[in-house]
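Dear support,

I submitted the protein below through the web form. The confirmation email said the job was done, but the results page showed an empty box. After a refresh the structure appeared. I'm attaching both so you can tell me whether what I see now is the final result or a partial one.
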Amino acid sequence: MARLILASSSPRRRELLLQLGLQFEVFSPEIDESILEGELASEYVARLAQAKAQAVLGRFPDATVIAADTSLSVDDEIIGKPESKAHAFSIWQKLSGRCHDVLTGVCVANAERILYQVVQTQVEFQPLTPNDMESYWATGEPVGKAGAYAIQGQAAQYIPRIVGSYTNVVGLPLHETIKLLKAVNASN
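What the results page shows now:
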């Protein structure tokens, strides 16, 4: 297989790919992650994943690139990473006692092909008390995470149910990523 590059600085994505025994390099591109007016979460994550893949492919044209972007959607609002404690609490108040969608755009690209897919997982949160929020914030885990939580960490105690891909909620849907990787490399 050609040189494989993960276009992400996410330690979770790196860990997930390592689970599969893949050998890869990491290069995180700088791209504008602004949400476009009227953009749906599915369109947003697809656009960013493709932009990341194309940026890295531009620097390493001989490589196969895996790129992804994960966001949450609740009431048609795109929810990203918390900017502060107050922002995290605001996010959790929206998620508390209800379901939300976690969407990841995955793009696998090489010089010949660019393929992408959006994977959606529904996550149910139990009602959160102010004490739950304070305790969870104190762990430091919510910082830098879409939706201000990490399902693979202490937030699991607040999540009674998911419908869909667990690895998608962590940040990279492995089943779909490998399917895209095989499809892109089938052209070589």
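Response: this is the final, complete result; the empty box was a page-load delay. The beta strands are 4-7, 25-26, 64-74, 77-79, 99-109, 114-124, 161-163.
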